[in-house]
Design brief:
It is a single chain. Helices cover 40% and strands 19% of the residues. It is an alpha+beta fold. It is elongated. The two termini are 27 Å apart.
Length: 406
């Protein structure tokens, strides 16, 4: 009888298996387009998920369920000739922001549940019209119906298309989920009056700045192609007014343009795409960029002069999204950079004064030592971020395996 393997070898193999499991668990990213492409009967549904940009949003989310419908069911909804924004609302009802595999679907607590959809999470839905009722019925059937459909279950579970527990589940249902709220006419991007929306949502002062500087035309012209607006509230603009008055006309225009980026970026996109991003003010050598960072659910915009936080969503209607921010975004091209010094002792460390941070200056803003210092800080943050959470576990286990195999 062969002697048992040494304990160290057994531990090493076990740790290696754990490492493989950890690495494989981090690679469970899904692609709804590829999943549906394997099923020709769902090709129309797949096409319109891409056309409405819902596919990209689905791919960025985790713990999600897609209720797919076949080509015949899609033909019925397309016959109503909805606009693309309205069709997006309807299809958003078919994306549940929770995981429902086939097993869970047939074992609902209490036999029924009400779950939110992507239509509800965008803030477009009124009240609970963005919720879907799922109910277990006799004979193993499972019915689906929108909350504002008078409790009617007009669609039924047919089969599981693909499940990646507990990441994404794609289930096929029999009919399109109908909702008067989702099917209501939706204005196209070009029909949206940006300054009017801002004025009605607590951003009238910022709306006035768009008009007075002439930036409103640039913002409006970018709506069709995709636009993200960061709107300081009226109180924030009022407090910043004295500094704004000290800027020249071109500087005022650049500052206002700095609050828009020429692409659609949902909150989920901003959370998953941290990094430097250009703005409407970007022009060749004049970068006018800032860094997007998130800490859990909180999203910050770092300009090297100030750090602003997104405090709410005014409108999220692809290709246009408007966020409220708690500070005026001040670019380093117009204001002095807040210096980050590695002081030898706490006694000598002095925080920069508010006057230094806000005074207009282009020469100081472009000083290489300041940028290098800020970049170094960003690099340090990146290293510390790498050592957090699951990555720390992987590194620790790797070291253990190395020691045991020596």
């Amino acid at each position: 009888m062969a002697p048992p393997p040494p304990l160290t070898s057994t531990l090493a193999l076990s740790l290696s298996a754990i490492l493989l499991l950890l690495f494989s668990s981090t690679s469970q990213a899904h692609n709804i387009t590829r999943i549906l492409a394997k099923h020709p009967s769902l090709s129309t549904f797949n096409h319109y998920l891409t056309l409405t940009h819902l596919a990209a949003e689905i791919n960025r989310r985790q713990t999600i369920t897609v209720l797919a419908i076949d080509n015949a069911a899609m033909d019925a909804i397309l016959a109503k000739h909805f606009s693309i924004p309205t069709l997006k609302n309807v299809l958003s009802l078919h994306v549940l922001v929770d995981y429902f595999g086939a097993k869970k679907l047939h074992q609902l607590t209490g036999g029924t549940t009400l779950t939110a959809t992507m239509f509800q999470s965008t803030g477009t839905a009124d009240g609970t019209s963005g919720y879907v009722n799922i109910t277990n019925l006799k004979g193993g059937k499972v019915g689906f119906g929108t909350e504002d459909n008078d409790g009617k279950l007009n669609s039924f579970y047919e089969k599981s298309v693909q499940e990646i527990p507990y990441n994404i589940s794609v289930l096929q249902i029999s009919q399109v989920l109908t909702s008067a709220e989702a099917e209501a006419p939706t204005a196209g991007p070009s029909d949206v009056n940006l300054t009017s929306i801002l004025a009605k949502q607590g951003c009238k002062a910022f709306s006035d700045l768009l008009i007075s500087t002439g930036a409103d035309t640039t913002f409006q012209n970018n709506v069709d192609g995709g636009l993200t607006v960061f709107c300081p509230t009226d109180a924030v603009i009022s407090a910043f007014a004295p500094k704004f008055k000290n800027l020249t006309a071109p500087q005022k225009l650049a500052l206002v343009l700095y609050h828009g980026i020429p692409v659609y970026q949902s909150l989920q996109m901003l959370k998953s795409n941290n990094g430097v991003i250009n703005t409407l003010a970007t022009d060749k050598a004049n970068k006018y960029d800032f860094t997007v960072q998130n800490d859990g659910e909180e999203v910050s915009l770092e300009t090297k002069v100030v750090t602003a936080k997104i405090t709410g969503t005014v409108l999220d209607q692809d290709p246009l999204v408007i966020y409220k921010v708690n500070k005026v975004l001040q670019p380093k091209e117009l204001f002095k950079v807040v210096k980050t010094k590695a002081a030898p002792s706490p006694k000598k460390a002095a925080a920069p004064s508010e006057d230094d941070a806000d005074a207009p200056s282009e020469d100081d803003a472009n000083a290489p030592s300041e940028d290098d210092s800020a970049d170094a800080t960003a690099d340090d943050n990146g290293v510390s971020g790498l050592m957090k959470g699951g990555n720390l576990v992987v590194v620790g286990l790797s070291l253990c395996v190395g020691v045991l195999l020596m």
